[in-house]
Specification:
Blueprint: E1 4-8, H1 14-24, H2 34-43, E2 48-53, E3 56-65, E4 70-77, H3 86-101, E5 106-108, H4 115-123
Parallel strand pairs: 4-5
Antiparallel strand pairs: 1-2, 2-3, 3-4
């Protein structure tokens, strides 16, 4: 996999990432727009990691750290490039980032209906916690 390069997104990448998620990611988020991804990038330019093969965007993960907890979002690999170790390489890069920042545990968001993601997260050593339920409230901002 020597032709795979993983690194943080630049501000010039953000529109392409949004387009990529339409093909490679399951579901959409209220933050899936240029303003939302722009705020992420402005606050933490190292959080959005991109995987490229021969210059082509083939995978993403958001490795967010708030100073207390490590959160993983938008692990996505282009359908034509799946099962080639790209997701694993992205998770390794995210976990290395967390360790450098002093993180102690990573959590991941996956849709209940996305069984393919459940298998990928399980293979990477993650497991659901039965005692937690995510509570959300959309904000006007």
């Amino acid at each position: 996999m020597s032709d795979l390069h993983i690194g943080p997104a630049s501000s010039d990448d953000l529109a392409a990432v949004l387009d990529f998620w339409k093909t490679a990611a399951e579901g959409t988020s209220i933050s899936d727009d240029l303003a939302g991804i722009g705020r992420l990038h402005a606050r933490d330019p190292q959080a959005l990691l991109l995987a490229r093969r021969d210059g082509e965007l083939v995978g993403t993960v958001i490795a967010g750290f708030d100073g207390w907890r490590c959160h993983l979002y938008r692990l996505a690999v282009h359908p034509e490039h799946r099962r080639r170790g790209i997701g694993s390489a992205l998770l390794t890069a995210a976990e290395e980032r967390f360790e450098e920042l002093g993180g102690r545990r990573a959590d991941a968001m996956a849709l209940d209906r996305n069984e393919q993601a459940h298998g990928a997260w399980g293979a990477a050593g993650y497991h659901p916690e039965d005692q937690w339920t995510r509570w959300v409230k959309p904000l006007k901002g």
